[in-house]
UniProtKB/TrEMBL annotation:
InterPro entries: G_ERA_dom, GTP-bd, GTPase_Era-like, KH_dom-like_a/b, KH_dom_type_2, KH_sf_prok-type, P-loop_NTPase, Small_GTP-bd. Its main location: cytoplasm. Residues 198-282 form the KH type-2 domain. This is GTPase Era. GO terms for cellular component: cytosol; plasma membrane.
Length: 298
């Protein structure tokens, strides 16, 4: 019988872009609440992933990575969101890619310790390490001179090592009842998530720099019986970009729409009728007012 007291608390998920923070949050929540792509800077907003277990509830604060690049307003806002993530949290997960550790990880560790937080080191992507004998010396090296509340090699993608990680993290959050209902998975609205799922397809399907010049606005979100009618506007910065997003004969936009719709249907558990448009707004990603209008307002 389980007699341990119930625990619940906020946990910041911190680490460099592309180490797998959002993949980890989704794996723990058990649903895709945070979008994932092979590109850095996929996550633009702070988002709460709610992971409910019999022993407790973890409110995972997924963050955009911490970026040195401060030039564009977008990056400034993303950094603000990452730092703001530390307010009111009980513990932090510092996520790194197995085999890697650099100055930015050291900076992040120091900041978390200075904030007085227990820091659990999550060594992700161990499935990519073919020579497992290299793992132990690596773990010893990164732990040296640092006080981690736990060190967990995991694969967020293959969902391995997660049970032990959850057990460790739960010991560092307060004894208290669940803070959200057990069927809740995020603090964001379905409308927001719909926009993110379209953006995920843009990140995945557009080449090179273009994804960073796009954003998505959900213009319509209506429940119509058991159908969701969703209208999404994809904003780009120039006419040429519009042509690329639409593609030859509209092929790319159709593919983006189809994949986004399937993801929405899976996440919302209902049929979705999705319409998409591409519109041009010059320089939106360097314009703080436009960013706020698009919901980047931490
Ligand atoms: N092989 C492998 N890839 C992973 C793992 N976790 C994440 N990835 C991939 O790494 C990329 C970045 O993941 P994401 O979660 O968006 O990283 P974030 O920027 O830290 O949020 C995606 O292509 C993921 O599929 C893992 O455990 N193993
Ligand atoms: Mg992310």
């Amino acid at each position: 019988m389980n007699t341990a007291p119930h625990r619940a608390g906020h946990v910041a998920v911190i680490g460099r872009p592309n180490v797998g923070k959002s993949t980890l949050v989704n794996a723990l929540v058990g649903a895709k609440v945070s979008i994932v792509s092979p590109r850095p800077q996929t996550t633009r907003h702070r988002l709460l992933g709610i992971a409910t277990f019999p022993e407790g509830q973890l409110l995972l604060v997924d963050t955009p990575g911490i970026h040195r690049e401060q030039k564009r307003a977008m990056n400034r806002l993303m950094n603000r969101a990452a730092r703001g993530a530390l307010e009111g949290v009980d513990a932090a997960l510092l996520v790194v890619r197995a085999g890697q550790w650099d100055d930015e990880d050291t900076l992040a560790y120091d900041a978390l310790r200075d904030a007085g937080l227990p820091v659990v080191l999550v060594v992700n992507q161990v499935d990519r390490i073919t020579d497992k004998t290299k793992l132990l010396p690596y773990l010893a090296k990164v732990s040296e001179g640092r006080e981690f509340a736990g060190v967990h090699p995991i694969s967020a993608l293959k969902r391995s090592g997660l049970e032990a990680l959850v057990k460790t993290v739960l010991t560092h959050v307060p004894e208290q009842p669940a803070l959200y209902g057990e069927d809740e998975i995020t603090d964001k609205s379905q409308r927001f998530l719909a926009g993110e799922l379209v953006r995920e397809q843009l990140m995945r399907q557009l080449g090179e720099e273009l994804p960073y010049a796009t954003t998505v606005e959900i213009e319509r979100f209506v429940e119509d019986g058991n159908l969701l009618r969703i209208g999404a506007v994809i904003w780009v910065e120039r006419d040429g970009q519009k042509l690329i997003v639409i593609g030859k004969g509209g092929e790319r936009l159709r593919e983006i729409g189809m994949k986004s719709r399937l993801q929405m249907e899976r996440l919302f558990g209902s049929k979705v009728f999705l319409e998409t448009w591409v519109r041009v707004r010059e320089g939106w990603s360097d314009d703080e007012a436009a960013l706020r209008a698009f919901g980047y307002n931490d």
